[in-house]
Amino acid sequence: MFGAVLSFFIVFLLFRLAFVWVFISGMAGTPSELIRAFWIGTRFDLRLACFILLPLGLALMVPIFNPMTHFLLRKIARIYLCLAAVVIIFLYAFDFGNYAYLDHRLDISSFKLLENPLIALNMAWESYPMGWMLLGLAIIIGCTWNGIKRAFRFLDDRPNLFRFRHKIFGFTMGGIIFLFAMWGTFRQYRLLWSDAYFSEDPFIVAAGLNPILYFNETRSFVLEDFNEGKTREYYDLMIQELGVKKPDAKRLSYVRAVDGRKIKNQPNFVIIFLESVGYNRMTRSGNPLNATPILDQLSTEGIFFDRFYIPMVGTARSVFGMVTGIHDVSRVETASSNPRIVDQYSLINALTGYEKYYIMGGSASWRNVRGLLKNNIPDIKIMEQEDMDYPRLDVWGIADNDLFKVAHETFQNIDQSQPFFAIVQTATNHRPYSIPKNIEGFDLIDVDKTVLSNAGFDSKEQYNAMRMLDHAVGEYISSAETAPYFNNTIFLFFGDHGTSDPRAFHMPKSDYDLKIRSYQVPFLIYGPGLIKGGVVRNDVSQLVDILPTINGLAGKPYENRTMGRDLLNSEIPIDPLALIINKKMAKEHIAVIGQDYYLSMSRDGSRVKLHELWSDKPLVNVRDKYPEITDRYLGRLKGIYETTKYMLYHNKK
């Protein structure tokens, strides 16, 4: 038992050391915090090793199943431990990749990546040296098996006589070690995964967790349902927040009927979905590397919103929020994957008389995008990789420059008397950051790693992928300018989410400390001849505002039932707020962000904190300094969050 436990414990300890060594560059905490996290983590590792041996320990106590009594039982016990080693070591490898990709340890939500296993495996194969990694895993598994084999030699060739004192010593010492491993501490209460959350640094927290045990804890997380009682409690507040003129508290109605206006020529609308583009990527934010010259130019010629936010990181979540007007606040799975809430009313349907397109370079089966669109917008035409005569670039489908060619050809072939609405979803600015060869006018740039890091980029591949997306946008706009549809088209560009990368020193300190970098994204409206350009809006706006704004520009009458507002025609509320579900902080929380403040709380209403966005110390809680602001923001946060959860289940088309 000691030998087998030791074999597993050493493997887990080596994985922990490797984790710290690989990801320590992201540490913002102190060395003493890292040491404390490591000590917590090793106790979790010992607990897991003992858990694995628990079935064998129980078998040793039951004569009929005791491996010491029969060779076949010993063989079964060895097979069990060898299989356990394979499964757990591969889960550790999955955890490594998950953290490198998403910046958090393995939990129940991580397995959403396996909903489309071929896409996930292809992305991993194209992003990482999988051959060497699999060889390394095989070596680790082989060494573990050898350790287990050595431990079992004792059972195969044990002494004929066990003295009573030997049994007492073994049982006592083994029992003490086992109980300590299970309890994890000498304190009154046992060691819990939450004990690793003593630091504000996400890396320090991650260094203190055991991925297998943490995954087991999160299995109990379920898709969070709404609470109608709490929704009713905040109804009066929310009808003011949303501008509901005809409230109906009995039916919990949030309907705002918007009258249409006569427009001579119905404009076309093209929403361009910019994969993984945070606001801090843009030169206009102060970024010194000029990765987005085209987007910056378009922003100066259109209407740019420099305080635009998405509520939760995840491309599928942004698709859902944009299409439905409801924040995707689902805790585990994305809302698009939940059959209970896939039936949704969408303001896209208010664009009567429009041809509707959703154009993406990969598969619309990803994250149930096809189901979300076709179930709720029956007349939308989905164009995906299999419909396009262009080579597949990587796991995400064709290159963005080819995707824009498909979109341009499609729009040119539409009867100009027929207005159209289209969403073009890019994907190349995403791991594995594939860049097609021989792109005219585009060359890779090699930038010093420190310079890249200071500008918020993780690697030169990421930097050049951002440049490639910007270049592809420029090529598309140049082509569109020569087409008949251009003069009657309004283009809307938005980033689906930011990324977890090094601190961008040109941004306010809160951008990194509060992880706003993942939630603040660019949004611009560009339509020469149709809208007045050169406008910068700095009022807080958010993803769910896109479709009401489009319907306002189209002049269509519509019924707004959800969370968004028309950014160009609605009355701007005093100090508008954006909802953020911040899973990037060490302690996950929900929050609202306003012009000058960021208020957060845990989902159960505890740990309320108020932060000053422009402070040199944004992590300082100023709740007691500004009690009125805290109370006002807290009420609005609870109202927005509870109403959003309710709407997810009460927005049927």
Your description of this structure?
- This protein is α/β, with parallel strands linked by helices and 653 residues long.
- The protein has two domains: 2-218, no CATH class; 264-570, 3-Layer(aba) Sandwich (Alkaline Phosphatase, subunit A).
- Helices cover 42% and strands 12% of the residues.
- It has helices at residues 2-23, 31-60, 71-102, 117-127, 130-156, 164-183, 202-207, 211-218, 228-233, 235-242, 293-301, 315-324, 369-376, 400-412, 449-454, 460-480, 509-513, 546-554, 627-649, and strands at residues 256-258, 268-274, 303-309, 355-360, 380-383, 392-394, 397-398, 420-425, 489-495, 520-526, 535-537, 541-542, 558-560, 578-582, 589-593, 597-601, 609-612.
- The strands form four sheets. Strands 2, 3, 4, 5, 8, 9, 10, 11 and 12 form a nine-stranded mixed beta sheet that branches. The protein has a four-stranded antiparallel beta sheet with strand order 14-15-16-17, covered by helices on one side. A two-stranded antiparallel ribbon has the order 1-13.
- The longest helix is centred in the first third of the chain and has 32 residues, at 71-102.
Gap between N and C termini, in Å?
60 Å
Count of DSSP strands: 17
Number of helices: 19
CATH architecture of the largest domain: 3-Layer(aba) Sandwich
CATH H level, superfamily name of the largest domain: Alkaline Phosphatase, subunit A
Largest sheet: 9 strands, mixed
Shape: globular
Share in β-strands: 5-15%
Average residue pLDDT: 90
Radius of gyration: 28 Å
Low-confidence stretches: none
**CATH level 3 topology of the largest domain:** Alkaline Phosphatase, subunit A
What's the level 1 CATH class of the largest domain? Alpha Beta
Structural class: alpha/beta
The helical percent reads 40-55%
Domains, number: 2
